[in-house]
Amino acid sequence: MRNIFLTVLALLALPIIASAEDVLSSGDTAWMLVATAFVMLMTPAGLALFYAGMTRSKNVLNTMGMSLIAFAVGTLVWVVAGYSIAFGDGDLIGTGKIMLVGITDKSLTGTIPELLFVAFQGTFAAIAVAIASGSMIERVKFSTFTIFAALWILVVYAPITHWAWGGGETLNFGEMDFAGGTVVHINAGVAGFVVAMILGKRKDYGKSAIKPFSPIFAVLGAALLWFGWFGFNAGSQVAADGVAGNAFLITNVAASVGVIGWLIAEYIVYKTPTLIGGASGAIAGLVAITPASGSAGVSDAIIIGLVGGVIGFIGVSKLKKIFKVDDSLDAFWIHGLVGIWGSIATAIFIAPYLMADDYDMGAQLISQIKAIVLTIVYSGVVTAIVFYIASMLTGGGRVDAETEQIGLDERVHGEKAMNL
Questions:
Q1: Is residue 10 classed exposed, middle or buried when 0-12, 13-18 and 19+ CB atoms within 10 A define those classes?
Q2: How far does Cα 364 stand from its chain's mean position?
Q3: Are 178 and 233 in contact (CB under 8 A)?
Q4: Do 194 and 378 meet the contact criterion of CB atoms below 8 Å apart?
Q5: In which domain, by residue range, is 218 found?
Q6: What's the first-to-final CA gap in the chain, in angstroms?
Q7: In terms of Cα–Cα distance, which of 262, 344, 271, 272 is closest to 306?
Q8: How far apart are CA 188 and CA 178, in angstroms?
Q9: Could you tell me the pLDDT band of residue 8, with boundaries at 50, 70 and 90?
Q10: For 337, which of 15, 22, 270, 307 is 20 to 30 Å away at the CA?
């Protein structure tokens, strides 16, 4: 009798078990609300301060303004059409969710409201184009960047997101990108590099010292980015579970060793471990672990983050001089180059308890490389087209020589960073 009773209970439980993924989880939803707020903080606060600290005093507000307008414009175009292109139905691009049509407060993505998922993913789109702004500051028109940001999210960021995460099959090579190694960092780094090449160098680049406005701002901005990155990486699990917990921990570990790696390399070369170097190392470590944050373990994160910090330093101190492109705030070298390392490392370093029994490292490496090449080529070519369009609509993409000399804060915004 007892066995019959247990069997009946098991049969009654089957529908509940089968539909568990279709039921709203208040725990997952609460976590994703917090994670989304974390990532929101990264753009108009963290990145704005980080970039402002490294620019010159005459362009501080303009630099911060780019992060601010990137978030505002990015949010708008994301809900209007970006989310549909990225996560709508379709192969090459998604369709069917323009202005979020058909999505209600009852719609779910996994165990959270789809509207919350829209908000979470929108913060990624915004920070991606804001990262790219770091390559073009001190000489790009604010109006040009504003139009560029809107177009870039729609025709560059959203399609790449669709191929990696949104269901696009033809250009999905089976890449492992848990939280945006290619989608955000390589994509944004390449975009910034391309625009920097089109704009040309700043008038005094290489002729006089370009001193950062405030290393204090840069360190504070990096700390806010570090904090927000917990939502960026752990939130990408879209659930409050063990994988999210692992992502949270190794994100912190990779950032920490990124600082150490950069400072050691800087001391070996220059004998001066700078705070801007340490802040940059933290970002490099965070970028490096981003694609692997759902699969790597602690020991893996130590290697990935440490190497990421060293690679970032080499890119900024050595390779930048070889390429001779005025990437103002090193967006390509810290995000693009380190992002490439992180994507490759994702295939190599996997925690044993997260590795599938049939895992083939060689095949996965090929998948990672294919995705990297696709992102570089597509982002590079289409970014150039988008920037030329934005430039034509604003009478040229570069400010005049006098504005560049005086500074964009006063000439464009009519303000100073500090009225002393």
A1: exposed
A2: 22
A3: yes
A4: no
A5: 26-413
A6: 86
A7: 262
A8: 17
A9: very low
A10: 270
Report whether 413 contacts 61 (CB < 8 A).
Answer: yes
Q: Is residue 403 part of a domain?
A: yes
**Distance separating alpha carbons of residues 351 and 349, to the nearest angstrom:** 7
Q: Reply yes or no on whether the pLDDT at 17 is more than 90.
A: no
Give pLDDT tens digits for 101-140: 999 999 999 999 999 999 999 999 999 999 999 999 999 9
Place of tokens 């960073």: 417
How many Cβ atoms sit within 10 Å of the Cβ of residue 370? 15
Gap between the Cα atoms of 171 and 379, Å rounded: 14
How confident is the model over 205-234, as pLDDT tens digits?
Answer: 988 888 999 999 999 999 999 999 999 999
**Angle at the Cα of 156 from the Cα atoms of 167 and 218, rounded to 5 degrees:** 110
For 180, 181, 287, 348, the CA distances from 371, given in Å and listed in that order, are 12, 10, 17, 16
Paired tokens of 348 = 């190599």
Provide Rg for the chain, Cα atoms.
22
* 3 in any annotated domain: no
Contact (CB, 8 A) for 173 and 371: yes
The structure tokens listed for 189 are: 């780094």
Number of domains in the chain: 1
Task: Tell me the residue type at 298.
Answer: V
Indicate whether 2 pLDDT > 70: no
pLDDT band, very low/low/confident/very high, at 325 (cuts 50, 70, 90): very high
Q: CA of 81: how far to CAs of 144, 186, 366, in Å?
A: 20, 23, 32
pLDDT digits (tens, 9 = 90+) for 158-194: 999 999 999 999 999 999 999 999 999 999 999 999 9
- The per-residue b/e assignment along 298-328, b for 16 or more CB within 10 angstroms, e otherwise, is eebbbbbbbbbbbbbbbbbbeebeeeebbbb
CB 167 within 8 A of CB 89: yes
The CATH number linked to 379 is 1.10.3430.10
* Cα–Cα dist 74/66, whole Å: 11
The pLDDT of residue 207 is 85
DSSP 8-state code for residue 398: B
Residue 11 lies in a domain: no
Q: Domain for residue 216, yes or no?
A: yes
Residues 161, 182: Cα–Cα separation, whole Å: 9
Would strands 112-113 and 108-109 be described as parallel, antiparallel, or unpaired? antiparallel
